[in-house]
Model the fold of this input.
Amino acid sequence: VSQAERSVSLAQHSLIKEMGLMDFRPLKAKGDFSVKTEKDKPDIAGLANINPSVRKIVSQREAADYDIKSAKLDNSPKIYGQLSANRTGTQWPPQNSELSAGLQMSFNLFEGGKSYYEVSKSHAAYNQLTADEKSTRGTIMLNLEQKWNTLENNMTLVSVQSKFLKAAEER
Done:
């Protein structure tokens, strides 16, 4: 009995902590207790996909993919164009017209392989995040599967204990 009372007190403290309350006060449940049995196993993979940890790592991996594309584009030549039209003169409206056009192209030749290594670095970060995503998704799916099995086991245990209670009451 003492052990059960300590367990109840510990469970009450845990519940108060999870509820975000600051001070301890004894909690008691009111009403009937009935167990709703779930027969269909939930979609573990679907639940894992909407898990915040998985969604975070997926968005980080997608950002790393864009970093790879950006690093590759930084290697390519850059072409700039400009066009201007001017009118000059001492009277209004100006009489002299000037048109100019320009084209500029730049290419990084002498960077000592910096751009190549930037692409390699981006690929490495992408590969790391892909592995992290796989690991996180696997961990979440395993945890969900374990929680489902624990729930099923406990529901079966409640059913068996209920039968024992009814048998004891009849005796």
Summary: Helices lie at 2-19, 44-49, 52-75, 114-170. The CA atoms of residues 76 and 96 lie 40 Å apart.
